[in-house]
TrEMBL record, chains A, B:
Annotated ranges, domain HTH hxlR-type: 13-117
Domain of life: Bacteria
Record-linked PROSITE patterns: HTH_HXLR
Organism this protein belongs to: Imtechella halotolerans K1
Keyword vocabulary terms for this entry: DNA-binding, Transcription, Transcription regulation
Protein name: HxlR family transcriptional regulator
The keyword Lipid metabolism is assigned to this record: no
UniProt-listed InterPro entries: HTH_HxlR (IPR002577), WH-like_DNA-bd_sf (IPR036388), WH_DNA-bd_sf (IPR036390)
GO molecular function term, any single one: DNA binding
Length: 120, 120
DNA sequence: CAGGATCCTTTACGATACTG
DNA sequence: CAGTATCGTAAAGGATCCTG
C-alpha cells in the first residue's frame, strides 16, 4: 500500500517533468506566444498581416515558427487559390487550449513589474 | 467614449504583450522551470542537492541559472558559515507565485500528449 | 503575396579543469 | 562544497536577396 503510493507519486512527478519538457519544447522561442496570442485574438490572418501584427518578427522566423506550430496542431494553414496565392492562418481548437497559459503568464508578467517597481 | 474604449483596449493589449515578453525573458531557457519546480517542492536545497535533483544540468548552468533567478527575486541564496562553506537556495514567496503557471504548463503538456496520441 | 536560400551574428548550452 | 574560467559546439535569430 505504501509502496504503491510511493510509486504513484514518483510517477506523477516524472509525468509532470516530462509534460513540462514537452510543453516547453513546443512553446519555446522568442515568438511562439506572440504568434499564438495574435491568432487567438483575430482568427484568420494572412502571412503579411501576421508579419505586421507580430511586432519585430522577420519573414524567415515567422515562416519557420508557423510551420512548427502547424506541425504541432496548434495552427492551421489554408491556401486560397487566388492569384497571387494568399494563405490564411488560423488557430486550431486545440491551440486555443493554450489561452489559460498565456493568461497566467501575462498576469504574472504584470505582477512581476509591480513587484519590482514596489521593491526598488 | 468610443475613443476611450479603443485606447484602453489598445493599452491593455500592449501591456499584455510587454508582460509576456518580460515573463518569457525571465523564464526562458532549458532549466528555469525545472529548478523552480524543484525548489517549490523542497525548500532549502544546497547547490549539490540541486545538481543531483535537476536531472542532467551541469554545474556551470546551474550556477548561472541560480544567479539569474536570484537577481529576479525568485530565489534567495544564503551562505552558511560552516567549513567548507555551504549555501542554501530557497524559493522566495514571490517565486512561489509561479506555481500556477507551472501547473498550467504541466496540465497542458499532458493534454498535448493525449491529443497527439488520440489523433495519430 | 508567401516564403525559400544564403550568409552571418549572437546566444545557449555543455565538458573539463581548476580554486577558495 | 560551491562555484569560476576556459574552451568549444550547436542552436536561435536576423538581414538580404530571390522566386513561383
Amino acid at each position: 500500500m505504501k509502496k504503491v503510493a510511493v510509486i504513484n507519486s514518483s510517477e506523477t512527478c516524472q509525468t509532470r517533468i516530462v509534460a513540462i519538457k514537452d510543453a516547453m519544447e513546443i512553446l519555446s522561442g522568442k515568438w511562439k506566444f506572440h504568434i499564438i496570442g495574435t491568432l487567438i485574438h483575430g482568427e484568420k490572418l494572412r502571412f503579411m498581416e501576421l508579419l505586421r501584427e507580430v511586432d519585430g518578427i522577420g519573414a524567415k522566423m515567422l515562416s519557420k515558427e508557423l510551420q512548427d506550430l502547424e506541425m504541432n496542431h496548434l495552427v492551421s494553414r489554408t491556401v486560397l487559390n487566388t492569384k497571387p496565392a494568399t494563405v490564411e492562418y488560423q488557430i486550431t481548437d486545440f491551440g486555443k487550449s493554450l489561452a489559460p497559459i498565456i493568461d497566467e503568464i501575462a498576469k504574472w508578467g504584470i505582477a512581476y513589474r509591480n513587484f519590482v517597481y514596489t521593491n526598488s
